[in-house]
Design a protein that fits this description.
By secondary structure, the chain is of the alpha+beta class. The chain has three domains: about 40 residues, no CATH class; about 90 residues, 2-Layer Sandwich (D-amino Acid Aminotransferase, Chain A, domain 1); about 160 residues, D-amino Acid Aminotransferase, subunit A, domain 2 (D-amino Acid Aminotransferase, Chain A, domain 2), CATH 3.20.10.10. It has eleven helices and 15 strands. The strands form two sheets. Strands 7, 8, 9, 10, 11, 12, 13, 14 and 15 form a nine-stranded mixed sheet that branches. A six-stranded antiparallel sheet has the order 2-1-6-5-3-4. The structure holds pyridoxal-5'-phosphate (PLP). The site of pyridoxal-5'-phosphate has 14 residues, from α9 and β13.
């Protein structure tokens, strides 16, 4: 009966996960939508507390909202484990340092808050979005007139790209929007200001692609709007170096490690579009995308036009890594 479920919820204090909620509904045959609605509500970490999604609010004077002044991370949860947590937390604090934003939690406290939010939402396979905004201030840009940087943690599920994209590979176009110049806003900072990427993404979706390749101001290959890029040429795995103006992806780092373990030569090297056109294989890496093959750039078939053997092998190795194997 519903009272039993409710007693469990209250007695143990914590939020019952969504699976448990479903169980309660089925077992009680209850017509009360309120009970499930309450438990199923996403709990967002904000101002040091877990609150219902509807109550998770920031000031309209927050410079994160007014100017995109803040930093963020996107992290996967696999098998109830926050994947590559230390690497993501390290990058978060590096991004914050670069924009002179002092995060009001220590890295250890941040890790604890992330874990708490994941558990509170019953997430075993999902995605964590960590946002640190500058805090509320005046309408001017002066960071000295802001206070209370906000730490927001959202733990939710994530919808994967359709399986056929992993099987058949993606078609990608080169965007005319160039990647931010590192001397203006370094792409190594994972800042809340993603307009550069969004403008390129619009170009991709306008042509029916889900990703666009972005070049830097020198015309070299940088990265995609939300993913790093790799090619395989003559048995060597190549990816642009940080100086090309990229976010140093955590997945990129993990895949480079897997490739080295597999005995592949790995090079961080400047490339131009032509190098991608004539590659044997190409793939992208990212927290959301994981490892996804690319089979076409700007209407040029890459290699055989199907995902290549190195890509497939690395994809498989990544699947093992993420599940703790
Ligand atoms: C611009 C950009 N490049 C690369 C990546 C891939 O980085 P990661 O593997 O850390 O998710 C992302 C996603 O976070 C991104 O937004």
């Amino acid at each position: 009966m519903i009272g039993t479920g409710l007693a469990v919820y209250v007695d143990y204090g914590a939020m019952v996960n969504r699976i448990a909620c479903r169980f309660v509904l089925i077992s009680t045959n209850s017509s009360s939508p309120l009970f499930c609605g309450t438990e199923m509500s996403l709990k967002v970490y904000i101002a040091g507390e877990l609150v219902d999604k509807a109550d998770a609010k920031v000031s309209v004077f927050d410079h994160g909202f007014l100017y995109g002044d803040g930093v963020f991370e996107g992290i996967r949860v696999y098998n109830g484990r926050v994947f590559l947590m230390d690497e993501h937390i390290a990058r978060l604090y590096e991004s914050a340092l670069a924009i002179r934003l002092e995060i009001p939690l220590s890295p250890a406290e941040m890790i604890e808050a992330v874990n708490k939010t994941v558990v509170a939402n019953g997430i075993t396979e999902g995605y964590v979005r960590l946002v640190i905004s500058r805090g509320a201030g005046t309408l001017g840009l002066d960071i000295r007139r802001t206070s209370n940087p906000q730490v927001i943690i959202i733990a939710d599920t994530i919808s994967l790209y359709p399986p056929e994209m992993y099987r058949d590979g993606l078609k990608v176009i080169t965007a005319s929007t160039i990647r931010n110049h590192a001397g203006a806003l370094s792409p190594r900072i994972k800042s809340l200001n993603y307009l550069n990427n969004i403008l390129a993404k619009i170009e991709a979706t306008d042509t029916g692609c889900i990703e666009a390749l972005m070049l830097n101001a020198q015309g070299e290959v940088a990265e995609c709007t939300g993913d790093n890029i790799f090619i395989v040429k003559d048995g060597v795995l190549k990816t642009p170096p940080p100086e090309a103006g990229i976010l140093e992806g955590i997945t990129r780092g993990a895949v480079m490690g897997l490739a080295k373990q597999a005995g592949l030569a790995v090079q961080e090297v400047a490339m131009v579009r032509h190098d991608i056109y004539i590659a044997d294989e190409c793939f992208l890496t990212g927290t959301a995308a994981e490892v996804i093959p690319v089979v076409d750039l700007d209407g040029r078939k890459i290699g055989s036009g199907t995902p290549g053997p190195v890509t497939k092998d690395l994809l498989e190795r990544f699947q093992t890594l993420k599940t703790g194997g």
